[in-house]
Amino acid sequence: AQKVTQAQTEISVVEKEDVTLDCVYETRDTTYYLFWYKQPPSGELVFLIRRNSFDEQNEISGRYSWNFQKSTSSFNFTITASQVVDSAVYFCALSEAFNFGNEKLTFGTGTRLTIIP
Amino acid sequence: EPEVTQTPSHQVTQMGQEVILRCVPISNHLYFYWYRQILGQKVEFLVSFYNNEISEKSEIFDDQFSVERPDGSNFTLKIRSTKLEDSAMYFCASSDRAGQPQHFGDGTRLSIL
User: Fold this and answer.
1) pLDDT digits (tens, 9 = 90+) for A11-70
2) Are A105 and A27 in contact (CB under 8 A)?
3) Which helix or strand (DSSP H or E) is residue B78 part of?
4) Angle CA(A50)–CA(A52)–CA(A55) in degrees, nearest 5?
5) B95 vs A110: CB contact, 8 Å cut-off?
6) Which residues does residue A21 pair with via DSSP β-bridges, in sequence order?
7) What is the average pLDDT value for chain B, to the nearest integer?
8) CA B5 to CA B13: how far, in whole Å?
9) Hey, which residues does B112 pair with through a beta bridge?
10) Is B102–A103 a contact, with Cβ atoms under 8 angstroms apart?
11) CA end-to-end distance (rounded Å), chain B
């Protein structure tokens, strides 16, 4: 069975600070995908990044960066120089790879990030 | 940019009534999903649908639930006899091929009275 743990329920930081959201996962699959989604107060789910299990390169996109460490089953997300618009709930998710027709997402419980102006 | 469209945005229904939630996935997508999110909780998988049939369903997706792709564009979720605990946000998602990220609609908030 797959499981995603986001131990941080809520985080508050002052604007312009850096913040890291933790994600730890469990799976028996040898190939899988990891995702981060953002859910702003308006409620929609916005895709941020996908990482496959055989690519451990870290990724940076503007102020966002992701650190994937297979050895510790972690896929952490860092926001640099946070802004008020980053305030949202962030979900980490996992899916089995190459399961054609069914790559259902298993979500973590989310981390509510509040950026204080 | 193409997007997944869900209607209605908010549905209020009496307990025991049937409800149909509608989704229009992105036009060239082949894989379709429904998820739900009870208020303040995590997003949970309900069902996946590919090649005109259910690929997998969760234990939440009991006999009261059904999905259908009645034409080339719509993807619907029906709850036959709603219960209070069905109150949640329901998200439709689609992807164009295996391994690609799922794109979510804005959700339908279902309130059962």
Assistant:
1) 999 999 999 999 999 999 888 999 999 999 999 999 999 998 888 888 888 999 999 999
2) no
3) strand B75-79
4) 115
5) no
6) A77
7) 93
8) 21
9) B13
10) yes
11) 36
